[in-house]
Amino acid sequence: MTRLAPVAWRLASLAVGILLVVLWQRIADARLIPAVFLPGPDQAWGSLVGGFASGTLLSLLLATVLRMIYGWLLASLLGIAIGAAIGMSPRARAYVGPTLELLRPLPAPAIIPLAIAFFGLSDAMVLGVIGFGALWPMLLATMHGFSAVEPRLYEVARTLGLSRLAVVFKIALPSSLPDILAGMRLGLTIALILAVVGEMLTGQDGLGTWILRAARGFRAPDLFAGVILLGLLGYASAEALAFAESRLLRWRPRTR
Amino acid sequence: MSAASRIPIGAGGKAVVVPVALVVLAELAIRLTGFRSDSVAPPSEVVVAAIQALTDGSIARATGETLASAFGGLALGGGVGFALGILLGSSAVLDRLLDFSIETIRPVPPIALMPIALMVFGFGARLEIAVVAFAAIWPILILTRAAIAGIDPQLIEVARALRLGFGARVLKIVVPAILPRVFVALRLAAGISIIVAVTVEITVNPVGLGYAIMIAGQSLRPALMLALLVWIGLVGWAVNFLLLAAERSLFGFAQPRARP
């Protein structure tokens, strides 16, 4: 049974997914849960189609995607640069590393009040919070990646008389790329969450604001449409990065 | 800094230098420039605000609210995740059949479900527990499933030789074998639960530490706000530390290479 072709399994598992949606439709139709709270998939789909047809959902989706990507790029740049700077020097690692490990588990949204005090309820605030919150996986991954570089590679660099910058770009960065990419994937997930939270708090246009307003107005179909869209966004961004990762790391022997 | 130089130059001493230097520098910079602002406060005032909030019980109450919701959600979501993980880990057929559904639901950011929970439950602990529970399901489910896949095949053979039924096999063989790894998942999920709980409080739910820090910021009390920020960090750190200690004392024998 388990020797069925993978394609058949994919199809079967897709069928189960469809079955669950049908079940959802039945539950909604039977009014087992009040329709105010649980609209059927048909209603959510209708709201999704209507929203895209009028163009509002597309522009909201774009706003959220851009916010997420800008914040994530900012966090990636900062994280990799700081991580590289610390990772290159064992002394910096000994002094700064523990402080960073201490800061890492801090819930990123907890700095939102501080960011609001500095930037107000603005786009810059949201970007700053994403930049800070999504920074840690990249920073720590780069730091650890740099410190785990095969020492003989550094010896080779010394023999070749490479400059410090050349060592970073030709040896340290490529060899810690797997760590960094894994960190960037985690960072993107955090960036999406923080983008949504930031929108909800600042009321800027985006899916986060939209679903919160839909909930406050008891417009359940709109709300479910927005949540489905955010789920798709989370899925698509994770898949895109996993694809990029497998492409960029093709030269490496498979470890798993 | 005599304090730093007295400490023998070890990892601990080096670790302390930077935070201490930063705090002293911040204090000096704010004192010397006479800088007043609604967004920052000198560390000494933060300490005063922290002591005040600790003695009047407001921090204790807020911490209790946050932790109750976080652990309530963790228990609920963790229970669901554990049960699903055992089911999917024990049955390859079920695992493959549900693969698509789970991989589609899992990437939904927990915070996106907050408006739904808000609409259904209104403000309060139930809203927060529901969102935390959703977030806590996944790490426990995935690591439980992975732990079952990693069980020594000989143990499964023993179960088969003893002709144990599904229930007995799970209770007597599977659960004891995966418990150390599930506990690691639990610690991971506890950290996530606290983060999600605070996030829900900051965003909509008017209880707990997240709400307290938002109010401190909005009422322009930067010292209290920063004190709460440090406190939230400490709470997360303390929970992780306690669970790590429990892990070592409970399962130290089983997991020599348990990763932090």
Structure commentary:
The complex is a heterodimer of chains A (256) and B (260). With 256 residues, chain A is mainly alpha-helical. Chain A has a domain at 104-249: MetI-like fold, CATH 1.10.3720.10. Chain A contains eleven helices and no strands. The model of chain A has no long low-confidence stretch (mean pLDDT 86). With 260 residues, chain B is mostly helical. Chain B has two domains: 1-35; 41-251, MetI-like (MetI-like fold), CATH 1.10.3720.10. In chain B, helix 9 packs antiparallel against helix 11. Chain B starts with a helix and ends in a 9-residue tail after the last helix. Chains A and B meet through helix 1, helix 4, helix 5, helix 9 and helix 10 of A and helix 2, helix 5, helix 6, helix 9 and helix 10 of B.
Number of strands of chain B: 0
What is the CATH architecture term of the domain at 104-249 in chain A? Orthogonal Bundle
Total domain count of chain B: 2
Q: Tell me the number of helical segments of chain A per DSSP (H or I, 4 or more residues long).
A: 11
How many helix segments of chain B? 11
Radius of gyration of chain A: 23 Å
Helix content of chain B: over 70%
CATH topology of the domain at 104-249 in chain A: MetI-like fold
Largest interface: A-B, 58 and 58 residues
Task: Briefly summarize what is shown.
The complex is a heterodimer of chains A (256) and B (260). With 256 residues, chain A is mainly alpha-helical. Chain A has helices at residues 6-29, 41-54, 56-88, 90-103, 112-119, 123-133, 135-147, 151-160, 164-202, 207-216, 220-248.
Question: What order do the helices and strands come in, and which of them pair?
Answer:
The complex is a heterodimer of chains A (about 260) and B (about 260).
Chain A: H1 6-29, H2 41-54, H3 56-88, H4 90-103, H5 112-119, H6 123-133, H7 135-147, H8 151-160, H9 164-202, H10 207-216, H11 220-248
Helix pairs in contact in A: 2-11, 3-4, 3-6, 3-7, 3-9, 4-7, 5-6, 6-9, 7-9, 9-10, 9-11, 10-11
Chain B: H1 2-6, H2 11-33, H3 43-55, H4 58-90, H5 92-105, H6 110-121, H7 125-149, H8 153-161, H9 166-203, H10 208-218, H11 222-251
